[in-house]
């Protein structure tokens, strides 16, 4: 019941008082009857006052509840931003890379996607070819590499300076072959991931063979690391 409805109800009660008096007073004019009518009217007034007070309490309680809900939504939104950052990248090689040396980091210079909602200095660096974890978490990385024709190459995905996966590609006369690898790594903030050439002999990678990159590197944060749960890796 709204305040306007209460006012209307009060007006109706008052009109009822007048109507009752107009009907009863001509026929019943003794003091006892008038006292009875007055008592009834006081009961109505008391009831109406109680209803009005109860509605006012409910109105104030609703306002307080709405404030609490709004504050809770703000806290939840802030917590989601903090706990669920968006971190992802996708890059390719824009031109052929020739004469790769042993242990050389492959620089995927053409960045198509790079997202880091933490606004850190981490993420993927298209100058060095190295990804640096902005937060502790479970990450997924994938690379696809295409060799030159008549060229053999062996590559590895590294976490810091430790290899975790290998990719071997071999091209034949007038043919280009590619290979892929995907890894799931639990990284601490500041740890790095890169793709490196493994052989000591000269090798080469195919870049933009038909306008788009043929050799690619991508990664994203799957979820933040729960330090309570045990992990391996």
UniProtKB/TrEMBL annotation:
SUPFAM superfamilies: TNF-like. Transmembrane segments: none annotated. PANTHER family: COMPLEMENT C1Q TUMOR NECROSIS FACTOR-RELATED PROTEIN 2-LIKE (PTHR15427:SF50), EMILIN ELASTIN MICROFIBRIL INTERFACE-LOCATED PROTEIN ELASTIN MICROFIBRIL INTERFACER (PTHR15427). It comes from the Eukaryota. Residues 82-228 form the C1q domain. It is found in: Secreted. Keywords: Coiled coil, Secreted. GO terms for cellular component: extracellular region. Its main location: secreted. This is C1q domain-containing protein. InterPro entries: C1q_dom, Collagen/C1q_domain, Tumour_necrosis_fac-like_dom. Residues 34-75 form a coiled coil.
């Amino acid at each position: 019941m709204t305040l306007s409805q209460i006012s209307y109800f009060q007006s109706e009660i008052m009109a009822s008082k007048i109507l009752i008096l107009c009907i009863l007073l001509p026929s019943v004019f003794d003091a006892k009857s008038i006292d009875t009518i007055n008592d009834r009217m006081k009961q109505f007034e008391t009831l109406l006052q109680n209803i009005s007070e109860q509605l006012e309490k409910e109105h104030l309680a609703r306002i307080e509840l709405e404030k609490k809900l709004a504050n809770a939504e703000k806290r939840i939104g802030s917590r989601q931003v903090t706990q669920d950052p968006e971190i992802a990248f996708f890059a390719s090689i824009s031109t052929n890379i020739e004469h790769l040396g042993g242990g050389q980091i492959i620089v995927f210079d053409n960045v198509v996607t790079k997202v880091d909602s933490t606004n850190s200095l981490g993420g993927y660096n298209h100058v060095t070819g190295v990804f640096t974890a902005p937060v502790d978490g479970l990450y997924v990385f994938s690379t696809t590499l295409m060799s030159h024709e008549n060229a053999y190459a062996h590559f590895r995905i590294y976490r810091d300076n430790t290899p975790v996966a290998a990719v071997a590609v071999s091209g034949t006369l007038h043919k280009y072959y590619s290979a892929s690898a995907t890894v799931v790594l639990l990284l601490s903030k500041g740890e790095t991931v890169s793709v490196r050439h493994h052989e000591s002999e000269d090798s080469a990678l195919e870049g933009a063979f038909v306008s788009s990159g043929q050799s690619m590197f991508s990664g994203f944060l799957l979820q933040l690391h729960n330090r309570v749960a045990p992990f391996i890796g």
